[in-house]
What we know:
Dihydrodipicolinate Reductase, domain 2
Amino acid sequence: MSSQVTNRIPLTSLYKSVEQTVKSGRLGTIVSLRVLMSTKSRPVEQLAIWLEWTGKLFDSSTGKLYASQDAGGRQISVLASLASGATISLTAVSYSSVDDEPANTLQLLLIGQHGIARLEGGNEIDPALASAEKTSNKWTAAIEKSVHSQAAIHVD
Length: 156
């Protein structure tokens, strides 16, 4: 079953919108961020970008994460608890060029004490922009270590 792509969004623009929403205070203190993406690029790097960004967004570059990968290696999920108290849940599903699914789509749910903000539907992101972002080796290494050890990893 193929999903309908409804909007093309540069990843950096999406991040700036999320940042403005958080800084506006309309949602209160942010307690959770949930991101679900499909991608044809490297999912671990995509997840590391989001962890780096959320660390900056929530003023917390440390925390604990657990990552798991399905047996086929197509889906990887990360659950992170940042030192600031925010919980981050990220899932990336890899699609090959022959799959009948749109690649590089994203859904987002931001939960605060006073409300939520969400981006739903088939919102296509530009993987070139995401890949061009400088990712923190610490997040990439932590994701890979957690997947292989099947254990939670502390990130400093």
